[in-house]
Amino acid sequence: MWQSLWPLLVGGIKFTVPLAVLSFIVGLLLAFGAALARLFAPAPVVALVRFYIWLIRGTPLLVQLFVIFYGLPSVGIVLDPLVAALIGFSLNIGAYNAEVIRGAIEAIPRGQWDAAYSIGMTRAQALRRTILPQAARVAVPPLANSFIALVKDTSLAAVITVPEIFQAAQRIASVTYEPLVLYVEAALLYLVLCSLLALVQTRMERYFSRHAVFAEGQR
Question: What range defines the domain where residue 35 resides?
Fold first, then answer.
């Protein structure tokens, strides 16, 4: 177990963590754009975004990765495994988080919009200065949960040959013939990583809660 720990850590540091962080950032940008489109865009754009969300949420992530990595070469699009995984995870996280962000924005009372308009703000200004800061407090817990789930889902990248933690464990197990030890070790690494992220999530929620209470007191 100790001999295999370093290769698993290398897989986590070089692939699992960067893949999760980059996918979440790209997916969050995509989700934000999709959420705004659902709320404010013309009907054809809304229909297109709804189709994207319906398609991604209605199909398994594993199938999406297979389509991107193994399916696209049949039409002449060949992607590096890491790039294919980044695209797949970003599209997936974007679809799910679009609904989170949209729900957070819609959870803000209509009176907040009216108050912003009453002091001369445009819709864009009201959204940026009044609505989004409040929506962020609502969205942080589900978004943090989504990131933790994404870290675990990166293990699916092993099926398209990305050498992250689980793929490293598979390769070592194929040589040592100790799959139980290797897979338990990989599971423990995911557990430690997700536990640390859960602590960060708790601190973030407390931070936003304190600021929410302070803002209410200022009013």
Answer: 2-218
Identity (one letter) of the amino acid at 28? L
Q: What is the pLDDT of residues 101-143, one digit of tens each?
A: 999 999 999 999 999 999 999 889 999 999 998 898 889 899 9
198 CB neighbour count, 10 Å cutoff = 12
Q: What proportions of the chain, in percent to the nearest 5, are helix, strand and coil? A: 90, 0, 10
**Residue 164: φ, ψ to 5°:** -85, -165
Task: Indicate which CATH number applies to the domain containing 12.
Answer: 1.10.3720.10
Domain count, the chain: 1
- Tokens matching residue 206: 């407390």
Top pLDDT among 146 and 137 is at: 146
Token duo for residue 128: 């940026």
Query: By the 8 A CB rule, do 34 and 49 touch?
Result: yes
Residue type, 50: R
Distance CA 196, CA 17 (A): 13
Cβ partners under 8 Å of residue 114, min gap 6: none
How many CB atoms neighbour CB 60 within 10 A? 10
End-to-end C-alpha distance for the chain, whole angstroms: 57
